[in-house]
User: Fold this.
Amino acid sequence: MLWIHPILQLAALLIAIRVLLMGINRFRFQHLRQKCAFDWKGHVKYGKIAAWLWMVGLVLGVYVAQQTWGTTALTGAHYDVGMLMWPFILVGLVTGYILQKPSGRRPGLALFHGTANAVAFVLALYQTWTGVEAVRLLLL
Ligand code: HEM
Ligand code: HEM
Assistant:
C-alpha cells in the first residue's frame, strides 16, 4: 500500500515532462511568435492524465500515511509542499478544461494556465527529491 503513492507520483511526473515540453512549444508560438508545432489533443489528453494522477496521488499519500502511522505531516517538508501543490494543480486543471476547446486566442488565460502548471511541475521536482528520502527512511 505504501508504494502506491510514490509509484503514481513518479508516473505523473514522467508524463508531465512531456506535457510541459508541449506547453512550452505553445508558449513560444503564442507569445514569442516563433514557429512551433503544438499537439493540442495530445497535450489535453496527457495533461489531464498527469494532473489527475497528481491529485489522486496526493490524496492517497495522505490517506496511506494516516492509515499506516495514525497521523499526517510525518514527512515534514514533503507534506507541506504537497499541501502547497494542490491549489496550483486545481487552477491548472480548471483553466485547462476552459481552454481545451479551441475558440479564438486567449493568451492571458493560457499564460495563467501555463504558469500554474509550471509552478506545480517545479514543486513536483522538489517532491521527488524529498519523496526519495521518505522512501529511504520510512519504506525501506
Ligand atoms: C506531485 C508529487 C507529490 C506530492 C504532491 C506528494 C504528496 C505527499 C503527501 C501530502 C504525503 C503525506 C505525507 C505526510 O502525511 O507526512 C506523502 C507521503 C509520501 N510520499 Fe509523496 N508526494 C509526491 C511525490 C512523491 C514521490 C515522487 C515519492 C517517492 C519517490 C514520494 C514518497 C512518499 C512517501 C514514501 C510517503 C509516505 C506515505 C506513502 O508512502 O504513501 N512522494 N506525499
Ligand atoms: C502537467 C500538466 C500541464 C502542464 C505542465 C501544462 C502546460 C501548459 C503550458 C506551458 C501552456 C502554454 C501556455 C501559453 O501559451 O501561455 C499550455 C497551454 C494549453 N494547455 Fe496545458 N498544461 C497542463 C495540463 C493541461 C490540461 C489538464 C489541459 C486540459 C484539460 C490543458 C490544456 C491546454 C490548452 C488547450 C492549451 C493551449 C491554450 C491556448 O493557447 O489557447 N493543459 N499548457
Remarks:
- The CA atoms of residues 26 and 38 lie 6 Å apart.
- Residues 2, 5-6, 9-10, 54, 58, 61-62, 64-65, 72-75, 78-79, 82, 85, 124, 127-128, 131-132, 134-135, 138-139 surround protoporphyrin IX containing FE (ligand 1) (CB under 6 Å).
- The chain has a mean pLDDT of 97.
- Helices lie at 4-32, 40-69, 77-99, 107-139.
